[in-house]
Each structure stands twice: as C-alpha cells, then as structure tokens.
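## retry 2 of 3
previous attempt timed out at serialization; input unchanged, resubmitting
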Amino acid sequence: MTNLPLITQYFPDLSEQQRQQLAQLPELYREWNAKINVISRKDIDNVEEHHLLHSLAIARFTRFGDGVRIYDIGTGGGLPGIPLAILFPQAHFTLVDSIGKKVRVAEAIAETIGLTNVTAIQERGERLDGPCHYVVSRAAMPAGDLMRIAQRVVDPKDQIGALPNGVIMLKGGDLTEELKPYRRICSIEEIEQYFPDRPFFENKKVIYIPL
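## retry succeeded, writing output
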C-alpha cells in the first residue's frame, strides 16, 4: 500500500482507517486513469500532492460535522469529495458530474475503499435539487456559475455547521474579476499557508462565499 508522507505530515491525527482509505487512492486513480482520463496523465504521478492534498486544503479551512450535507459540483473522479469524505465520515457528500463515465469512476473508488457517506450522481448542476449545507468544487467552473447552482441547492437557514452555509471552492491565479461581484462577502485563504514549502500551492486559494 502506498505511503502518503505529505498527507500524514499535515494531517497527523488520522485514524488507522482514514490512513488506509487515503493510501489506496493513488493506485486506484492510476488504475482508473488508464481506462478513463479523470486526471491529466502527465500529472498522475503527482496525485498525492496535486490532487489529494490540494482537495484537503478545504479540511484545513473548515471542518464538517455530524449530519452536514455537501454537494461536490463537477467532481470528475471524486475530487475534492472523496478525500474530504474520508476525513469527515459523519458528513454526507453527494458527488455530482454531468459525465457518466467520470461518475462511475468516483462511485467505484468510493465503494472500493468502503466509503459509506458518499453518493455519486450524473447530473448537470443547474438541474440539481437540494437541500444541502455547502457546495464545494475544485476549479470546475467560474464562480458565478457555481453560485447560481448553490443558490438553488443550499439552504441558508438550516445552519448546523460552525461556518455559515455557502460555497467553498478551490481556485488558482488572479481571481480579481471573477470574484468582483462577491468581494464584500467572500473570504480568500492562500493554500500555501496550510502547506508551506510546497511550491505547487503558490497562488492557489480556498474561496468561501456565504449564502
């Protein structure tokens, strides 16, 4: 089983089950990626840092408690939803993608590692029904499009988490124009503060917009 030195460095308090589940992911993504391209084939050898640890930046930003429902929009092969579901087994994650073969990858990986708090569905975000507490996404679409989906599915009144219900997205680069409509309410956290001395995370951010 693959060791994950970076993840265990930054998340030293994982249970043995969480370690085992996370440790299965690199090989599973390699196997599935050979059949269905859900991660750039040039990047598959960097899956721990570039994909799993990146997804878990959300877990450094906030924690999802008992009964919290999260939609992962544009999940692809299950990122960031699957790593987050491992860390927060008492929350429920719905992995959503419009491409059926990617949904099948996410579903198969979740089943293989024994995740019971994940549902994978093929659907366009614009056609989803709620309710959920949070929407998460990993560079799947522009912030405005994601917010329009979130306004359909997030119930701002059913507050059970420490963080007001809303959208948490992973994005990189210059987001000035994209986030201009939300500049008064959004929070922007640099991921390199969570994972220092990792050049990959320079200019990568966690964006939170409450609803």
